[in-house]
Every structure is written in C-alpha cells, then in structure tokens.
C-alpha cells in the first residue's frame, strides 16, 4: 500500500511539473487567471477534480 501511494504521489508531481517545465509563460498566465477566481469557483474546480479522480479509479482501479 505504501509503494502504491508513493507511486501515485510521484505521478501527480510529474504531471504537475510538465506545464511549468515545457511552457513557463503559459503556466504563469494560467496561475494569474486562477487567482482571479472566486472561492466558489475554486471549490467547484476541486470538487470536479475529485469526482473525476474517483471515477477514473472506479473504472480503471484494481
């Protein structure tokens, strides 16, 4: 279980690092736009991300 969790965290870090590495300007613009979102919009984005992650785990998980 520990190795699986470590692998999942490593994959998230890899995916999170792709855009700033490949196109730092686009990452900066996206971050600046994210700062302009309301708390409700950020919460909805987080909820959508959680839901998508759970759905992917249910479809492709062990």
From TrEMBL:
The chain crosses the membrane at residues 44-61. Keywords: Membrane, Transmembrane, Transmembrane helix. InterPro entries: DUF2065. PANTHER family: INNER MEMBRANE PROTEIN, INNER MEMBRANE PROTEIN-RELATED. This is DUF2065 family protein. It comes from Scleromatobacter humisilvae.
